[in-house]
Amino acid sequence: MKIAVDAMGGDHAPREVVRGAVQAFQESGYSVILVGQESRVREELSAIGGFPDKGIEIVHASEVVEMCDAPSVALRKKKDSSIRVGLSLVAEGKADAFVSAGNSGAVMAGGLLILKKIPGVDRPAITATIPAPYGPIVLIDAGANVDCKPEHLLQFAYMGEAYARRFIGITNPRIAVVSIGEEDSKGTDLTRETCELVRHTSLRFVGNAEGRDFFSGKADVFICDGFVGNVVVKTMEGMAQALGPFLKTEIDKSLLAKAGMLLANGAIRNMRKRLDYAEYGGAPLLGVRGGVMICHGASDQKAIKNAIRAAGAMAGFRLDEEIARSISSKGPVIV
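The structure assignment produced for this chain is given below.
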């Protein structure tokens, strides 16, 4: 198993990316191809003791796609960028998956241009895995497609179901459409028409889900367009970050609360770990051939390590083939 990693992508690249890649190799055994400006990558490797005995190689890419670059322009003008070269390694069969914390728009555009879509998929989608009290839930799309048709959300349902079943291990995932009410009449034309499509498939459809249902255990896979999904994910991320200051303010109000904090310290530490996006590493781009993992721009060593681990596992499950099989064999039965 070989994972191509964008060594130049992210706020803390290449330092944190290189360190995360080496740690991923040491812990998982996946071989890693660091794609980027070779001199800078070698400097970071030297800072942590040089190359491991095996399992780490460098593929030079002279250009870097900046976060401010327009995706289509970057791919067209920066043909030797670490994103384009890394995706090409997957397309050529030299790597099994690609991981990047760089410009997510460029990664998505490159995935479409270089890796191509899975048969039966019109719009690849970003899939977010979110910690919840009853186990992880899946949100798709988390930002790749702002304007969608009902047929696209139906495809998201198949992709999300395959991901939840094969990767997360949920035997028969429950599917819900994100809306503003549980009733069939609520929502937009998009959500109402999507419900009708999904209802007449073999998927385990549980109807509409409101925002409060993400953590209630109602469904395992929540489908929506990328605009809604991105707002949901970033709101959850912001709330998770706000919990710490909220808690500190209340604890500082009394000595009794401070004593209780000491007793509950282990539980609070475990909760923070469950809410930490770095534990999941990144969000897969489903619907393209090969594995693509998109990481948070602020990813540190731990997040990169976990993203590489997840990308390797996803490639091992051959999730792209499972999605193609799922869509072709479970196509909608419209009545």
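Interim note for the steering committee: The mean pLDDT is 89. Residues 226-251 form the longest helix (26 residues).
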